[in-house]
Specification:
There is one protein chain. The chain folds into two domains: 215 residues, Glucose-6-phosphate isomerase like protein, domain 1 (Rossmann fold, 3-Layer(aba) Sandwich), CATH 3.40.50.10490; 163 residues, Rossmann fold (3-Layer(aba) Sandwich), CATH 3.40.50.10490. Helices cover 48% and strands 14% of the residues. The protein contains 14 helices and ten strands. Strands 1-10-9-7-8 form a five-stranded mixed beta sheet, sandwiched between helices. A five-stranded parallel beta sheet has the order 3-2-4-5-6, sandwiched between helices. Helix 1 crosses helix 9 and helix 1 crosses helix 13. The N and C termini lie far apart (47 Å). The structure holds 5-phosphoarabinonic acid. The site of 5-phosphoarabinonic acid (PA5) has 15 residues, from loops. 5-phosphoarabinonic acid (PA5) binds next to loops.
Length: 406
């Protein structure tokens, strides 16, 4: 993968870049030696192949019994699996996500959709006490037990913390197997634990390849992560408070959601932090393009380019009714790249600094590599900004207020 800062030249000086590079380099060392605040939560730096293998074993059991696997979880116990499933365009309909909303309408629709379909449940909650997945699990476990009776125990796998929580207790009493999110990995950094691996394996992903990519990234992308963190910090210091991640494939829309949780929860605290936003291009150019070009100049844009392997091209028509025969034969990925380059030039001209990230075609390995790169960048950027990138006191606040109201 490649990180390019050529879209920053007219917005930050070389001295500013050098200052933040030094800070980011020091932050990398703090991250790797575990000496910073939250250093006890950096277990994600070493993704485990054993976790991939055990996830594959349990996933095979679920797959042979069910048409659909309900993945019940929220936040870090949801978005990693959802994002990767979309990025890899895994078997449609194999996973349905629940426990991620308190909407009655959504849950009713999923319940109806299970008529005539065999299903299993993967319930994921690191704390084992979060309201949304607890409510979701009640709803769908009840259906599962009434439908499958004693066979139900073979259709539920839980992923939770190693030692405590209501989820662990119920699984012990009902005989549901449990896989573990280690104590030293926080929710938004858990995609390479069974929280991400089990659902993804259940949908047919090669999770060992995902881990291989992540481990390679941990070795090979440290410099790239420092570069990206440097740019983010230099831009924030120069008054750019929002980062817009623009993705250029619809299958990356959920990567944007995962990225927002990763960076938003890691950096937005103590009264500071870059506000992460994501846009899916070119669709969102026709809704947000005006603002990007011409609105408040408090943002920078990170353009993410992914190679496509689809060989589809613009067709010619006999009557050239719309005048587009002039690009007949042009591959859509080449046209998409023209839009990418044109948009970057236009937005820079409009006062939006640009960072460019380029990655290879989506495979389990390149996705693993990229997500690890983003997690490294986030840890570095968080430490360089002076916060603890591994806690989330604000999320805990909402959870406890909701508990009081309930
Ligand atoms: O990053 C975090 O820790 C949170 O956003 C959690 O992922 C989210 O609240 C879900 O928590 P849990 O897995 O404990 O149910």
């Amino acid at each position: 993968m490649n990180v390019s800062l050529t879209g920053l030249e007219s917005f930050v000086t070389l001295q500013e870049i050098a200052y933040w590079r030094e800070k980011s380099q020091a932050a990398l060392e703090t991250l790797l030696d575990g000496s910073g605040r939250g250093g006890e939560m950096t277990g994600w730096l070493n993704p485990s192949t054993a976790d991939a293998e055990i996830s594959e074993q349990y996933a095979a059991r679920l797959r042979e019994r069910s048409d659909v696997v309900l993945v019940c979880g929220i936040g870090g116990s949801y978005l990693g699996a959802k994002a990767v499933a979309e990025m890899l365009e895994l078997e449609p309909g194999r996973l349905e996500f629940v426990g991620n909303t308190l909407s009655g309408g959504y849950n009713s629709r999923i319940l109806r959709s299970l008529e005539g379909r065999d299903f299993s449940i993967v319930v994921i909650s690191k704390s084992g006490t979060t309201t949304e997945p607890a409510v979701g699990f009640r709803i769908f476990e009840e259906l599962l037990r009434s439908r499958y009776g004693t066979d139900a125990a073979k259709r539920v796998v839980a992923v939770t913390n190693p030692g405590k929580g209501a989820l662990r207790a119920i699984c012990e009493s009902r005989g549901y197997p449990m896989l573990t999110i280690p104590d030293d990995v926080g929710g938004r950094y858990s995609v390479f634990t069974p929280a991400g691996l089990l659902p993804l394996a259940a949908a047919g992903a090669s999770v060992t390849a995902l881990i291989r990519g992540a481990r390679r990234s941990r070795e090979q992308n440290l410099e790239n992560a420092v570069t990206y963190a440097t740019a983010r910090r230099a831009l924030y210091a120069s008054g750019k408070q929002l980062e817009v991640l623009s993705v250029w494939e619809p299958s990356l829309r959920w990567l944007g959601e995962w990225y927002k949780q990763l960076f938003g929860e890691s950096e937005g605290k103590d009264g500071i932090g870059i506000f992460p936003v994501s846009l899916e291009m070119t669709a969102d150019l026709h809704s947000m393009g005006q603002y990007m070009q011409d609105g408040v100049r408090n943002m920078f844009e990170t353009f993410l380019w992914t190679q496509s392997t689809a060989a589809i091209a613009v067709p010619a028509t006999a009557d050239d009714f719309d005048g587009f025969n002039r690009i007949a034969g042009l591959r859509l990925d080449a046209l998409n790249r023209m839009a990418f380059d044109a948009t970057m030039a236009a937005h820079i001209e409009g006062g939006v600094p640009a960072i460019k990230l380029e990655i290879d075609a989506m495979t389990a390995e390149t996705v693993g590599e990229f997500l690890m790169f983003l997690m490294l960048s986030c840890g570095i950027s968080g430490y360089a900004s002076g916060v603890n990138p591994f806690d989330q006191p604000g999320v805990e606040n909402y959870k406890s207020k909701l508990r009081q109201l309930m």
